[in-house]
Amino acid sequence: MTGALFKANFWSSDILSTAGYDCIIQHLNNGRKNCKEFEDFLKERASIEEKYGKDLLNLSRKKPCGQSEINTLKRALEVFKQQIDSVAQCHIQLAQTLREEARKMEEFREKQKLQRKKTELLMDTAHKQKSLQFKKTMDAKKNYEQKCRDKDEAEQAVHRSANLVNVKQQEKLFVKLATAKTAVEDSDKTYMMQINTLDKVREDWQSEHIKACEIFEAQECERINFFRNALWLHLNQLSQQCVRSDDMYEEVRKSLEACSIEKDIAYFVSHRKTGQTPPAPIMYENFYCPQKNTAPQGKAPGPNLARRGPLPVPKTLPDDPDYSLVDNYSLIYQ
């Protein structure tokens, strides 16, 4: 806390000037505006967090994510969906927390506004009294100076009329001079009275100005401290949100560490297996002699017999219709 900087540094040599006071008020107004901007920032951030949380919640609960997985990976995915749901809830809770912090900032602003209002009313009154009394004093001064000039003119007129024979005229001049002297005395008293009053008003204003500076400096220290703490708390809340989210993600990582590829494969085989005997080879079947066809399908059989039986055994009988002898060659009749 600085303590006495405002009251020592916001003066002006002009008695009618309010430059120092106006500068302080402008600074306080800017500070209040800054608090309002941070308050609006918190509210908007809360809306973002709430929307993100709700969107994440809908995603977790409505969008399929590996729903046909089995065994250990299925359990890991279930933990994943549960933790995403929890993260979404955390964001929604954070939105509520941010709105509460924004409400506190608003209450602080309004409290300082009411405190300032009392001091500002006193200062406005002091400024008006000072200005009014200064005007009265300047008017009294002008009147006093004019009466002095009137008296001087009356004296000069008396001196000029010293050799005049007209006594009546001289008496008039003496009466006018006496009247002028009386007017000077009266205006002098009035002027002095206004000067004294102005000095009293100035002292009162100066005292109020010092008090106002002390109050405003204390308020500004309080505002800066409150604003700083609010921002610090906001960052702590965001960090805590990250830590909580990471804790939830860690639960998913642990479930993934427990995921076993071998177990999932074995589980699938155990629950979905269809048999252990593969199909037998498909055998070739001869249309005419199915009992002698032993060659498996896909393998070439013996010579193509064009769907005929085995070759007949040659005979040497000349009258055999299946054979004929031509120059000692035997021709097979196909």
From TrEMBL:
Domain F-BAR, first and last residues per copy: 4-264
Annotated transmembrane regions: none
Gene3D superfamilies in UniProt: Arfaptin homology (AH) domain/BAR domain
Stretches of the chain forming a coiled coil according to its record: 91-118
Region (Disordered): 293-320
Keywords of this entry: Coiled coil
InterPro entries with a match to the protein in the record: AH/BAR_dom_sf, F_BAR_dom, FCH_dom, PSTPIP2_F-BAR
Pfam family, one: FCH
PANTHER family with a match to the protein in the record: PROLINE-SERINE-THREONINE PHOSPHATASE INTERACTING PROTEIN 1 (PTHR23065), PROLINE-SERINE-THREONINE PHOSPHATASE-INTERACTING PROTEIN 2 (PTHR23065:SF9)
Name the UniProt record assigns to this protein: Proline-serine-threonine phosphatase-interacting protein 2 isoform X1
